[in-house]
Structure prediction request, 338 residues.
Amino acid sequence: MSAQIVPLRPARPEPSLTPLLALTAPGMNAVNAVILDRMQSEIPLIPSLAGHLIAGGGKRMRPMLTIAGAALLDYHGSRHHRLAAAVEFIHTATLLHDDVVDGSDLRRGKATANIVFGNPATVLVGDFLFSRAFELMVEDGSLKVLKILANASAVIAEGEVDQLTAQRHVETGEERYLGIIGAKTAALFAAACRIAAVVAESGPAAERALDDYGRNLGIAFQLVDDAIDYDSEAAEMGKGKGDDFREGKMTLPVILAYARGSEEERGFWRDAIAGFLTSDEDLAHAVTLINRHDCVTATRERARHFANRAVDAIAAFPAGAARAAMVEAAEFAVSRRY
Prediction:
């Protein structure tokens, strides 16, 4: 009697951004045209420096979420194209400023603008992009949209200042850390999603749902970014490996390793976060301690919690390509290795 052959179940494919990219491709073409047009200036340094970062291969998650939110709500107008460009300008401006504050020399595998063009020019072009963003908001004519994006810009700045004051303070706890990333990262994710509901005139419930989706997705995304910086198995993110460690940033993997560690391990973290231990060997030891206490895994588990909340936030919307793409984007946020 021959053995019965049982066909193997196909492995479930890894979550990806492919459905979101496909969903938003036509809209993002329009957004990119606005970005290209509005980053121009008679001062040649401005488009050169802005283009250096904008052409650097980022995911453009925030404007894509504006486009995806509009698709979810079956909006067929074009107002959201310019507003999505405004969102990307706000994000790009904050990146330019962040790289100056952090003294970063790599982003997405390329030299940062501050290394290529210098700090003064980088800060000023960031200011230029903020100005362009607000021009686009004013041209849209909606005070509600203007309020949402202006508030998000202020919250982002507050989050960056809070992170700066928490830097090199090893006693920074998880609650404060979540507050920092909720401001510096999640606020713009939330605003990018919410303005789609405003433009579509879908009402307060839809606005809240999309805001919740974006906010929780943004937190999940940042948690995974912070985990990747200490994940020895992760692919390179395109920024310098160990940047957070050398800059003394209290991200969740470090917060957990400090809380779970022995007194000897805590002594290492106190010296490292204070800036006394910054060599490659010190970074390797930090990764060893983080792995010893499963802190990367725990950080990703917390990210999954927030990603699940993001998915729950849009569960009431009709099933279809838009909702499926946004759900998979949340799953990708947690599973990604870069």
